[in-house]
Amino acid sequence: MSPAVAGAEAPSRRRLGWILALLAFAQCIYAIDYSIVFVALPEIRTGIGFSAQTLQWVVSAYAVAFGGFLLLGGRAADLFGRRRMFIFGLFLYAVSSLVGGLAGDPTTLIVARAVQGIGGAFLAPSTLSLVTTTFAEGPERNRALAIWGGAGGSGMILGSLLGGVLTGAFGWASIFFANVPLAGGAMLLAFAIIPKDTDRTASGRKFDLPGALTATIGSTLLVFTLVQGPVSGWTSPTILITAAVAVAVLAAFVTIEGRGRDPLLPLRLFRNRNLSTGTVVTFIFMGTFGALPYFYTLYWQTVHGYSATKSGIAFLLPCVGVLIGNLSGGKLATRFGVRATLTGALLLGVAGTVAFAFSVSRTGSYLELVPGVLILSLGQGTVFTAMYAAATTGVAAEEQGIASGVASTGQQVGAAVGLAVLVAVANSGHEGLTGEALRVATAEGVRSAMWATVAGIVLIVLVVMNFRRSPQAPAAEEPERQDGVTSTA
């Protein structure tokens, strides 16, 4: 049991199981929400009148708000209570999902998606920090992260499956309505299952309002720039202005955090080698593996003409592979160490992505994709679990929320950057093409994006070398610093 639960009665083993089940379920909810809209985009466009230029904001509004508010959500979990922020995030999900399903115009749906993103920004770090503070560092936490990661990694693929099935059977609005009972039910269960937050007012810690404002504004503008850049052009006035303002505001944020007595983001956290390295890993992971559902959908629907339902069913294979990888990741990390586990899983991902790239063609069958997709999905699932086990190691319990927010920010910004880059690679030279010519070019573009993904995964392998060889090693290997952050990971 983690000492983080000190001050409250230690949960029984049975209750720990229920807590973990609920946290995994919540993780699955916001992971599903990341990808569930991809398959439904064509119907959303025709259903409420999006243009080709504005349709991307059904996805981008969520990504921008999620990435922009993550640091705020992480610190709020530390200061105001992880259970409170967990429930608040689920509440935002339920309400915004209802509004999204009822939306009759593009503006309403985009706003609803942005609020969903804000809900995710509070839910993601509170969920991860509840896992890392409820379960003791080492094998116990690795097992918990394997289950939590299984829900999250599989949720990204499962979202595409559900998106296809629900859209085909009930229409695009059903993908939003489905979230309402899920998030609402999880919110009610949290009151009964998760222990109450301990009183944090006695600690004398204050909320860093200047840091919160500059972090949120700067991060939001940065993610907006990265998402909108490929559409507007990187040299357009809008992009140049938002990029410049984002850099200026984030520079002010760093200055404020360096001088503040109780900063939103203590900069000393980055002296934890595993947290800083883990943030880079999550960034590149989401920019490579995290973009795969988009390209699966593009390949199946545009190249081979799959319906939304058939596309959803096609996602069963990667979903199974990711789930197996997730559940194996914790055991492998405990036995071989996180660095070795990540290295092996990434090399597996490289092999699978190469096989997938070779099997992509205009006339190819689904069966030809099976070996590559299954292998890369196994690697993807294992990496998802192990990278968070490494990134959160050695961080003090009272700062797990902001540490989780930092790692999750890397994840969300990486998703925006990676998808933008890979889409640009895949769409290069497609201007003016239609019909069969467009389908052939799309298959070639997907193949090019996969080769770019291979390069990105190889880069992760090099970054992983900066992790400690044995994250479960005792703290005596390297003394704990006075700031409470150990460099042993």
UniProtKB/TrEMBL annotation:
<protein>
    <submittedName>
        <fullName>MFS transporter</fullName>
    </submittedName>
</protein>
<feature type="transmembrane region" description="Helical">
    <location>
        <begin position="172"/>
        <end position="195"/>
    </location>
</feature>
<feature type="domain" description="Major facilitator superfamily (MFS) profile">
    <location>
        <begin position="19"/>
        <end position="472"/>
    </location>
</feature>
<keyword id="KW-0472">Membrane</keyword>
<feature type="transmembrane region" description="Helical">
    <location>
        <begin position="449"/>
        <end position="467"/>
    </location>
</feature>
<keyword id="KW-0812">Transmembrane</keyword>
<dbReference type="InterPro" id="IPR036259">
    <property type="entry name" value="MFS_trans_sf"/>
</dbReference>
<feature type="transmembrane region" description="Helical">
    <location>
        <begin position="110"/>
        <end position="133"/>
    </location>
</feature>
<keyword id="KW-1133">Transmembrane helix</keyword>
<feature type="transmembrane region" description="Helical">
    <location>
        <begin position="239"/>
        <end position="256"/>
    </location>
</feature>
<dbReference type="InterPro" id="IPR020846">
    <property type="entry name" value="MFS_dom"/>
</dbReference>
<feature type="transmembrane region" description="Helical">
    <location>
        <begin position="372"/>
        <end position="391"/>
    </location>
</feature>
<feature type="transmembrane region" description="Helical">
    <location>
        <begin position="277"/>
        <end position="296"/>
    </location>
</feature>
<keyword id="KW-0046">Antibiotic resistance</keyword>
<feature type="transmembrane region" description="Helical">
    <location>
        <begin position="340"/>
        <end position="360"/>
    </location>
</feature>
<feature type="transmembrane region" description="Helical">
    <location>
        <begin position="85"/>
        <end position="104"/>
    </location>
</feature>
<keyword id="KW-0813">Transport</keyword>
<feature type="transmembrane region" description="Helical">
    <location>
        <begin position="55"/>
        <end position="73"/>
    </location>
</feature>
<feature type="transmembrane region" description="Helical">
    <location>
        <begin position="308"/>
        <end position="328"/>
    </location>
</feature>
<dbReference type="InterPro" id="IPR011701">
    <property type="entry name" value="MFS"/>
</dbReference>
<feature type="transmembrane region" description="Helical">
    <location>
        <begin position="412"/>
        <end position="429"/>
    </location>
</feature>
<dbReference type="Pfam" id="PF07690">
    <property type="entry name" value="MFS_1"/>
</dbReference>
<dbReference type="InterPro" id="IPR005829">
    <property type="entry name" value="Sugar_transporter_CS"/>
</dbReference>
<feature type="transmembrane region" description="Helical">
    <location>
        <begin position="145"/>
        <end position="166"/>
    </location>
</feature>
<keyword id="KW-1003">Cell membrane</keyword>
<feature type="transmembrane region" description="Helical">
    <location>
        <begin position="207"/>
        <end position="227"/>
    </location>
</feature>
